[in-house]
């Protein structure tokens, strides 16, 4: 997950848009019409050659400052033949006036372990695009649980990265509610 450039952009926009800094930058980037449809977890489709799962990331932390500044809809495809998982993410930037897509990105994870029950994959932590964090992806094929942890490398120049942040994949998708009352997700009377 490429969060660092997104957070920097959010800090720049938020600090220029407001005199007082908000406690949580997610409050600056919010639109009531952007909603999430969550589905229950289920086993991850595929076989011993490939696995595919999709949804959106949510923070494992109860701390509101750990939520993603911009929501990400993702699809993760893992292939045994090249020992790679590719995460395709669509980053959504809601503001009070508009909901836009800011980035579509692919991130490759090298598979470290794959067996009948799940896999472990990772990237970063070296001189690549992410030297300050190692990103670890885990999948449990049976339960459908998918998570990613951003683990600090503690390298020189990476002092800003001190905590491990973890996110779980929620099955479902984001949508823009265009109903007149912005209530398409509420039960009808």
What would you say this structure looks like, in words?
The protein is mainly β and 189 residues long. The protein has one domain. The chain is 7% helix and 45% strand. The chain has 1 helix and 11 strands. It has one helix at 4-17; strands at 34-38, 45-46, 50-59, 72-79, 84-94, 99-114, 118-124, 133-140, 146-152, 165-170, 172-176. The protein has an 8-stranded antiparallel beta barrel. The longest helix has 14 residues, at 4-17. The protein is globular. It starts with a helix and ends in a 13-residue tail after the last strand. The model is unreliable at 2-22 (pLDDT under 50).
Q: Report the count of strand segments.
A: 11
The helicity comes to under 10%
Helix and strand composition category: mainly beta
Tell me the distance between the termini.
41 Å
So what's the overall shape?
globular
The structural domain count equals 1
Q: Let me know the largest β-sheet.
A: 8 strands, antiparallel, barrel
Question: What is the average per-residue confidence, as pLDDT, rounded to a whole number?
Answer: 84
Biggest β-sheet: strands ordered side by side in the sheet: 3-4-5-6-7-8-9-10
Q: What's the helix-strand series?
A: HEEEEEEEEEEE
Number of helices: 1
How large, in whole angstroms, is the Cα Rg? Answer: 18 Å
């Amino acid at each position: 997950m490429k969060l660092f450039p997104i957070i920097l952009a959010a800090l720049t926009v938020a600090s220029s848009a407001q005199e007082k800094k908000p406690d949580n930058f997610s409050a600056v980037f919010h639109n009531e019409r952007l909603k999430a449809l969550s589905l229950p977890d289920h086993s991850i489709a595929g076989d011993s050659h490939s696995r595919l799962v999709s949804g959106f990331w949510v923070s494992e932390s109860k701390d509101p400052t750990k939520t993603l500044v911009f929501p990400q809809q993702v699809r993760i495809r893992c292939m045994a033949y090249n020992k790679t998982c590719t995460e395709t993410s669509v980053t959504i930037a809601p503001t009070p006036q508009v909901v836009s897509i800011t980035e579509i990105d692919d991130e490759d994870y090298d598979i470290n372990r794959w067996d009948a029950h799940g896999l472990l994959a990772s990237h970063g932590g070296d001189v690549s695009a992410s030297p300050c964090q190692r990103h670890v992806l885990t999948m449990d094929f049976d339960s459908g649980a998918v998570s990613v942890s951003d683990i600090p490398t503690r390298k020189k120049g990476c002092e800003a990265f001190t905590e491990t942040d973890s996110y779980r994949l929620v099955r479902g998708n984001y949508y823009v509610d265009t109903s007149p009352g912005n209530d398409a997700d509420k039960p009808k009377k």
